[in-house]
């Protein structure tokens, strides 16, 4: 196994932020003020068994209410050390530091975690400023440095979150359980994770929040069809995975008006570009606005989809289902054309660059329709540019090649032979990255240490860049939590041209690129993006 080329450099001073399950835990709160009341509320919402110590004569009204209604157990006015033994967590909310320190030392000697208000040196953990919407919780911590500022940051984050996010989380939790029950084997864990990840990534929050039980049944059927299971017979009910419901999708389309029956329909293949709506051409934007029906690829970002004002359907393309989804869309388009509608087939990137645009043009020509084509900016050229990688550079790369890592019916594609003066861009290759890199090194004479980069979701707000060498780029990708489609692989010495490094005999220019915006990302930071909650 090849060693990883870069290992994240730990930066001390952080806290370990976890979602601690308190349902079977006993918590002790010492204090009678408003801060103690907030600690009690947080613990009760976490289903902990809460005990309280404090003088009732000066106790805040909220705590008196909770004692009266037996929501907490009152243990008296003084905290004795033996009381610590009976609890799993202790919160000290006292203004007297000496008393607070005595309690904190008693907790530490018994290895009971303790939090002491306004005394960071006595704390084993800090409290966070938390936003909650049902099962969704967002926590902000300043590690005890600026608690008031953390509240402001939390409010800013909460105000920017989509509506119905809590409902979306709840419905996805139900769907996750249903998928597990329908396919419970341990071997299916990775398949479940990838399938659910695609739904979380490409569906709108509104649509997720409105998932009905019937929708989930249809989704489960799509899951089994995707993995080669026998059809259960109702797949036709979901023609548009990921599309938010619109009046046009709810009402029937079997009848047409007199004007549409005499009008000739039009079909336009539109390139949506790499992802940022600002990179749409004016012609593409105009076509989308004038359409009666938009048939969009699943990987077209939500920001572009939001521009669609008419009937919208999203392709049901999963691995192994591409041909069936293509036929379904062709049939939908043909039916709409017969009704005199303006149909837009919205494709990520450019329609004719591994977008099956030529096949669709031939299909519609066969049925008597001339296809209009609106080109789009391909990620094959946009992604390197947005990452600071020149595809060509004097004395380094005099040509570049765009190819695919996936052939017909999800099979391996023919691979090019290595050319040191060329930059290679592999589309649709990340899902078989290990096999691809091995083939390039073993069969196509690529140097194992040639620089390469993976660019995911180019031009989108969450664009991510992963740097490495060909021999270990697959391991680097795994180390940051796996892929976030869509992505592409760039291979060649031009990758290092604009990186501020000394490449010695490789002859690569030592040029510093000043990054602007958020497109450029440091590899060290990228390695910290691993998400431990990616196991379903």
Automatic annotation (TrEMBL):
Pfam family, one: TP_methylase
Ranges where the Tetrapyrrole methylase domain occurs: 266-473
Domain Siroheme synthase central: 133-159
The protein's annotated pathway: Porphyrin-containing compound metabolism; siroheme biosynthesis; sirohydrochlorin from precorrin-2: step 1/1
Siroheme biosynthesis protein Met8 C-terminal domain location: 162-226
Gene Ontology BP terms: methionine biosynthetic process; methylation; siroheme biosynthetic process; sulfate assimilation
Segments of skewed composition (Low complexity): 248-264
Role played: Siroheme synthase involved in methionine biosynthesis.
Name of this protein: Uncharacterized protein
Organism (species): Lichtheimia ramosa
């Amino acid at each position: 196994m090849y060693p990883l080329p870069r290992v994240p450099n730990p930066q001390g001073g952080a806290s370990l932020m976890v979602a601690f399950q308190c349902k079977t835990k006993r918590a002790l709160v010492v204090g009678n003020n408003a801060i103690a009341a907030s600690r009690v509320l947080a613990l009760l919402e976490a289903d902990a068994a809460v005990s309280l110590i404090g003088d009732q004569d000066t106790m805040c009204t909220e705590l008196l209410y909770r004692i009266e209604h037996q929501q907490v157990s009152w243990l008296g006015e003084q905290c004795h050390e033996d009381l610590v033994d009976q609890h799993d967590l202790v919160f000290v909310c006292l203004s007297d530091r000496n008393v607070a320190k005595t309690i904190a030392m008693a907790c530490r000697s018994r290895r009971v975690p303790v939090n002491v208000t306004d005394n960071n040196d006595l704390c084993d953990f800090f409290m966070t400023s938390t936003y909650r919407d049902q099962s969704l919780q967002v926590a902000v911590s300043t590690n005890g440095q600026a608690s008031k500022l953390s509240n402001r940051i939390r409010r800013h984050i909460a105000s920017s979150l989509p509506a119905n996010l809590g409902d979306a989380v709840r419905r996805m939790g139900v769907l996750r359980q249903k998928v597990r029950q329908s396919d419970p084997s341990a071997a299916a864990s990775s398949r479940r994770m990838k399938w659910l990840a695609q739904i979380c990534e490409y569906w709108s929050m509104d649509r997720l929040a409105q998932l009905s039980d019937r929708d989930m049944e249809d989704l489960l059927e799509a899951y089994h069809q995707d993995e080669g299971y026998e059809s259960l017979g109702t797949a036709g009910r979901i023609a548009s995975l990921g599309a938010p419901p619109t009046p046009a999708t709810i009402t029937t389309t079997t009848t047409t008006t007199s004007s549409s029956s005499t009008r000739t329909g039009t079909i336009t293949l539109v390139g949506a570009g790499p992802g940022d709506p600002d990179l749409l051409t004016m012609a593409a934007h105009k076509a989308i606005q004038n359409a009666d029906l938009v048939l969009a690829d699943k990987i077209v970002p939500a920001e572009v989809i939001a521009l669609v004002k008419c009937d919208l359907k999203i392709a049901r393309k999963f691995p192994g289902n591409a041909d069936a989804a293509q036929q379904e869309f062709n049939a939908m388009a043909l039916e709409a054309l017969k009704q005199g509608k303006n149909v837009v087939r919205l494709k990520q990137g450019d329609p004719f660059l591994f977008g099956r645009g030529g096949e669709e043009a031939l299909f519609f020509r066969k049925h008597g329709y001339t296809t209009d084509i609106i080109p789009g900016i391909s990620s094959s050229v946009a992604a390197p540019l947005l990452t600071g990688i020149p595809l060509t550079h004097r004395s380094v790369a005099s040509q570049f090649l765009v190819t695919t890592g996936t052939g017909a019916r999800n099979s391996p594609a023919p691979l090019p032979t290595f050319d040191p003066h060329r930059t290679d861009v592999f589309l649709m290759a990340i899902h078989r990255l290990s096999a691809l890199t091995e083939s390039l090194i073993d069969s196509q004479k690529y140097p194992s240490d040639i620089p390469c980069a993976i660019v995911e979701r180019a031009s989108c707000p969450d664009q991510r860049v992963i740097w490495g060498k060909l021999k270990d780029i697959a391991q680097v990708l795994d180390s940051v939590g796996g892929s976030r489609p869509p992505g592409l692989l760039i291979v060649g010495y031009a990758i290092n041209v604009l990186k501020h490094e000394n490449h010695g005999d490789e002859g690569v220019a030592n040029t510093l690129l000043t990054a602007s915006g958020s497109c450029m990302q440091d590899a060290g930071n990228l390695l910290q993006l691993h998400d431990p909650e990616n196991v379903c």
